[in-house]
Amino acid sequence: MDPHSQREKAESFRAMHDRKRILVLPNAWDAMSARIFEDAGFGAVATTSAGLAYSIGYPDGEAAPQEEIIAAIARIARCLRVPLSADIESGFSNDAASLKAMIKSVIDAGAVGINLEDSIHGGSMELFAQDEAVARIKAARAAANEAGVPIVINARTDVYLRGIGEKSTRFDHTVRRANAYRAAGADCLFVPGPADAETIGKLVRAIDGPINVLSRPGMPPAPELERLGVARVSVGSGPAHAAMTITRRIAQELLRDGTYSLFLAPGTVTYAEANQLMSQAK
C-alpha cells in the first residue's frame, strides 16, 4: 500500500473515534466477509482474531503461525478501500522487540489499526503486569512511528473478560489499566465483558479516553451506547459464528434430507453477485 494513502487511512480511522458518533465496527474473518461489510456501507472494517484463525485452520488464542495471520490480514487489506484494523491478540510476542516486528508486519500488510490485549496466552488466565503491558503499548507506538504510519492502537484489558480478582475490584482495576494504557499512547481503550448500561456508563466516565465495548447478550443497542458516551462497539467473532451456524444447518439438511432449501432460498447471494462483489475489490 502507498505509505501516504495508508497514513491518510490511519488518520481517517482515528477521527472515527472522536465520540461525536459511535463507531459500529464489524469484524470480518476473510476477504469475502470484509467486502460484504464494506459494500453494506461501513466506513471501516476490523478483523476478528477467532474468526480469522478458524478460516485458516486454527483455534483462537495465538495458535496460528504468525506468518499465516499476516498473510490473511494482507489478503483482506488488499480487497478494501476503507480502513482495516487488525486484531493481533497479544501481538504473538512476549518481548518488546518481537512485538515491534509484529507491528511492522501488520502495517506492511496494509492495516491502519490494531487491537492489542493484555492477556498472556499459552494456557494461562493471567494478564501481563500493568507496567509490562504499558511498555508493550509504548513499543507498539514506537514501531508505528518508525514505520511512518500512525496506526490506531485499541488497547484491550481483559480484567472483566477473564474474571481477574474479586468482582468488587474489577472496575477500579480496569480503569487503572485503561488510563495507564491511554497515557502510554493508546488511542482507544477496549473493555470486553460488561454488557449492562450502568457499568458501561461508569466506565465511560472514569476512563480518560474513547472506549470500545464488545457486543454481548443483553447489551444495549448502538444508539443507546452512543448516548452513554461509548466511542466504538465491536461485534467480535459473532458474525463468523453465525456464518458457521447456517453452514452447519445446511450440512444437517443436506445429509438428513438431501434437500437444498437453506442455500437456494430467495435472497441468497448469487454467484453473479458474489463474483461482482469481489471483482470490485480494490
Task: Give the structure's gist in a few sentences.
With 282 residues, this protein is α/β, with parallel strands linked by helices. The protein has helices at residues 3-15, 31-40, 49-55, 66-79, 96-109, 130-147, 167-184, 197-206, 222-228, 238-256, 271-279; strands at 23-25, 27-28, 45-47, 84-87, 113-117, 152-156, 188-190, 211-214, 232-234.
Task: Write structural notes for this entry.
- The structure is a single chain.
- The chain is α/β, with parallel strands linked by helices and 282 residues long.
- The protein has a single domain, classed as Phosphoenolpyruvate-binding domains (TIM Barrel), CATH 3.20.20.60.
- Helices cover 49% and strands 11% of the residues.
- It contains 11 helices and 9 strands.
- It has helices at 3-15, 31-40, 49-55, 66-79, 96-109, 130-147, 167-184, 197-206, 222-228, 238-256, 271-279, and strands at 23-25, 27-28, 45-47, 84-87, 113-117, 152-156, 188-190, 211-214, 232-234.
- The protein has a 9-stranded parallel sheet with strand order 1-9-8-7-6-5-4-3-2.
- The longest helix has 19 residues, at 238-256.
- The chain is globular, with a radius of gyration of 19 Å.
- The protein starts with a helix and ends with a helix.
- The mean pLDDT is 97.
Strand order of the largest sheet: 1-9-8-7-6-5-4-3-2
Helix-strand pattern, N to C?
A: HEEHEHHEHEHEHEHEHEHH
Averaging pLDDT over every residue, what do you get? 97
- Beta content comes to 5-15%
CATH fold type: TIM Barrel
Structural class: alpha/beta
Query: What CATH first level would be assigned?
Result: Alpha Beta
Compute the number of structural domains: 1
What does the overall shape look like?
globular
What proportion of the residues is helical, as a percent range? 40-55%
Number of strands: 9
Question: What summary fits the major beta sheet?
Answer: 9 strands, parallel
